[in-house]
Model the fold of this input.
Amino acid sequence: MSETLTGPLRRQRRPVGEALAGIMLTLPAAISYFLLLLLPTLAAIMLAFTDYELGAPAIGWIGGENFVELLDDLGFRQSLRNTMVYTAIVVPFSIIGALALALMIEALTRGKALFRAVFFLPVVSLPVAMATAWQYLLHPTIGPLNALLREIGVNGPAWLTSSDTVLVSLAVIGIWEAIGFNLVLFLAGLTAIPRELRQAAEVDGVASAWERFRLITWPLLGPTTLFVVTITMIRAVRTFDSVAVLTQGGPNRASEVLLYTMYTEGFTYFRLGYSAAITLIFLLIVLALMLLQTRILDRRVHYG
Amino acid sequence: MAEPRARLAELLRWLLLGLLGLMFLMPYIWMVSASLKPLDEIFRASLNLIPENGGTLSNYTKVLSEVPVAHYLWNGLIVCAGILFFQILFAVPAGYAIAKLNFPGRDWVFGAVMLGLLVPYHVPALPLYVGFSALGLLNTYTALILPSVISVFAIFLFRQFFKSLPDELIHAARLDGMGEMAIVWRVILPNALPAATAFAIFSVVAHWNDLFWPLIVVSGPTHATPALGVLYFRTEEAGDDFGALMAASVIMTTPLVLAFLLAQRRFVEGIATTGLKG
Amino acid sequence: MSGIRIEDVTRRFGAVTALDRVSLSVQAGEFVALVGPSGCGKTTLMRIVAGIEHVDSGRVIINGSDMTRKRAAERNVAMVFQSYALYPHLTVRQNISVPLVMKRLSMGQRLPLIGGFWPGADAVRRGITNDVGKAASALGLGELLDRRPAQLSGGQRQRVALARAIVRRPAAFLMDEPLSNLDAALRVQTRREIVDIHRQTGAATLYVTHDQSEALTMADRVAVMQAGRILQIGTPEEVYGNPVDLRVASFIGSPRINTLPVEADADGQLHLGDVLLMRHAPRGPLTFAIRPEDCELADAGIPVRAEAMEFLGENFLLHCQHPPSGRTLVLRLPPGAPRARPGELLHIGFNPSRALLFDAEGRRLDPDLRVSQQEHAFV
Done:
C-alpha cells in the first residue's frame, strides 16, 4: 500500500481512485459491448418473434408463429438434419484422426514441427480458396480424384453435385479443415503429461503402447479431449463457408445447413423475422452444447 | 533399453506420417499444379502434377490483370489491423480492471463477459446489418471493422493472464507515483505482450478468413476482403476457368500461409494457448 | 549373486560423458547410497539400472540375469521418483495396485468391463487387494486409500510412492532423491522409516542423494560420485575418515573439511608449523586437510584470525581466517569454550594422526609414509 500520504485522507482516496480507474478502463469495452453485442443479440431474440421483413413498412409481433412455421418447413427440417449429419461425421473423425496423429507426432524425436505444420496448414488457409481447390479436386470430369479412380476402372460420382454424396464430401472437407486445429490442442495436452509419469509406468510394468495409452495418456488427456469435442461440435454446427461457396445448399437442399438457411432467409428473401428465429434455434443449440461440457462431463474429467 | 526397436518404430512413424501428410497436402499440391497449367491441359484431366511444356503463368497474369488482387489484400490488411487495434485497445484495460482493480459492478461486468462467450457472432449479425443499413454504413470499412471491435474472448483472455501477474508489480508502480492510466500503458501492456501476441494471431487468422460478415455487409469490389474477392472471381468465371480460379486461390491464400511458415511456433502456440484457456 | 551389479557402464550425451566406465554392486539386503553434487551422473546411473535410460557400453545384472538390453517393464525393479510420479487420476489404492495389476493379471483380465468376468480374475484381484492393504498399512496409509494424490500432503504422497514400490517385492529398490521435496523435520523422520522399510523387504536398495549427511546416516555403504566417475565406495566411516581423494574429503562432512596448501622443504620433509607431518613427501604443491572436530585452540600452532562464532546448541563453530593463504578454517569447540572476539589472533592445534594429506592431483598420500603418532607431541 502506498505510504506517501498518511492518515484517513489517504484511506479515503485510494479506493475511490481505484474504483474510478476501474470504471474508466472498462467503459469503452462496456459501451461497445452494449451497443454491438448486447443490444443486437436482444434485438435478434426479439426479432424472432416478429414478422419483420426488410423494407416492410411495419413490424408486427407474431409470437411463436415463426417457430411453428419452422417446424412445418421441410426445407428447414432438412437443413437441421443435414447439420446434424454433418456434425456427426466431422466430429468423431476429426477428433480420432487428430488424436492418432498427435500420438504419432509426439513420439517423434525429429520432425515434430514439420508434420505439425503440414496438418495445421488448412487452419491458416483461406477457406474460400481451399474450398475452390477442393472443388477442382473433386470435379467429376476434370478433377484428379475421379481421374485416379478412372485409372483403376471405377467411375467416381459427381461428389459435390450429386445429392447422395454432397453432404459426405463437404464433411470430408470439414474434417480436413478441423484436424489441424484439434491436432495442436492434443499436442499441447500430450506435452503437459509429465515424462516421469510415463517412466514410472514403465518401471511398474506398463510395457505396450496400448497399456500406456489406457493407463496414462487417455485419462490425463481428459480435459483436453472434452474441450476439443465441444469446440469441434460448435464449429461443425457453425459451418457456412464451404456450403456458401461450393453448393449454395444444393442440389435440392441436400447440403443446406443451419447457418446457410439463416443467411438465405435473411439476405436473399429478406425475411428477417424468420431468419432471426433460425438464429435463435442456432443459439440454443450452441448453448446446449456448452452446457453439456460444463455440467455433465466436467465433473468426471478433472482430477483436483 | 532396446535401441534398434526404437529406431524402427520411429522409421515407421515417419513413413506413415509422411504418407498421410502427402495425402493431406493434395489440395495444395493440385491447386498449385492446376494454376500453372493452361486450360486445355486442365480439361484433359491428366494425372500429371508437373505441367506439360514447363507450365504457364498465363493464369496468374489473367488473375492479376482482371482481379484487383492488391486491393483485396490491402482491404484485408486494413480490416484485420483495424479490428485488432481496437480489440486490444478495449480489451487490455478492461481485462486488467476486472483482474486487478476493485470497482462497483466488476462482477457484473465479468459475468457479462462470460455470457458473451456463449454467443456466436452470427447471432447479432442480423440486427447489426439492419442498423448499419439504416445508418447508410453498408459497404464501408466501418461496417467491416466495428462489430468485431468488442471481443469478449480477448477480455477473458487478458483477464486470465493479468490475474497471474504479481500484485507487487502494480504496487511498485503506484509507489513510484504512476497514475492508474499510466500503469495500464507503461506497466501492464508491455507485460501483456505474450498474451497479446497469441491473441493477435488468433484474431488475424479468424478475420482474414471470415466470409460470413463481409458477405453480408459488402457488395462490390471496393471494400471486398480477400475471402470475398475469391468469391466474386468465382461467380465471374462461372466455374469454367479452373486455371485462373486456382491461381486466384493461390494468391489469396499465400500471405497468411507464408506468415505461418515463418512464425510457425508463434502461430501454433497462439492457437493452442488461446484454445486451452478459452 | 543376488542384487544389482553394474559393470563398466558408460553413457554419453553428445559430447558429454555422463558416466565413464562406472562399476558398482549392491548385495541383496544392502543399502547403498549414491552421493555426489548435481550433474555428477548419479541419477543417470539409477535410470540405467531401472531401464528407462540405455547404456552405450557395459552391463547391468540384476539377480544374476543380464538385464542390459531388457526394458524397464521386464526387470523386477521398483523406483521411487523425486517427484513421486503418482497417477493423478487414480486413488491411492489404485496407484499402489498398478504394478501388481500389470504383473498378475493377464491382458484379458485387465480389460475395462469384461475383465471382471475373465476366468481367474477374481482370485487374483483378491490377492492384489490383500497385498495392497498390507503395503498401505506398513506405511500408515490405511485411512487415505480412497483419496487422490491432489488431496494428499507432500509427505503422504511420498509414502504412496514408497508403498507402490514395496508392494511388488522387487529384486531391487531404486530411490531418486525421494526426500528432497520434504521439509527438514519430515526429512529426518522419514529417513529412519525408509531404512526400516528397506530392512523389512530385504531387497538391494540403491539410494541417490546430493545430501551427504543423508547418505552417511542411512547407508551400509556410500559411493561418492563426481563428473561421471565413482571416486570411492566404502562404509560411511571409511568414506568419512579415510577418503582416497580430496574431492571425497571435501564433499563428505559438514561443515566442510579444512584445507591448507602445503609444500615439502628441500629435503622432502613436510612441516606445518612445528609439526612434522611427513618424512619423504613428494615435490610440488600438496594439500593438508583436517576435520573441524579434530582441531582445537592452543597456545601455538596454525596462526589464524577469528572471524565469527556460530552457536549450534551442542557445540560452537569458530570460523577463522588463515592470513598467509587467505583460507577459512572452521573449528568445532565444546560448549564451555571461551568466546573468541572477532579479529582476535589465535592458534589452532590438531591431532596429527587425524591429518589427511593429498598430492597435487588430489590423491591421498599413503599414511605409512607419514610420521607415526608416537613421534609427535600433541601440539
Notes: The first helix of chain C runs from residue 42 to 50. Residues 3-241 of chain C form a domain with the Rossmann fold fold (CATH 3.40.50.300). Chain C has nine helices and 20 strands.
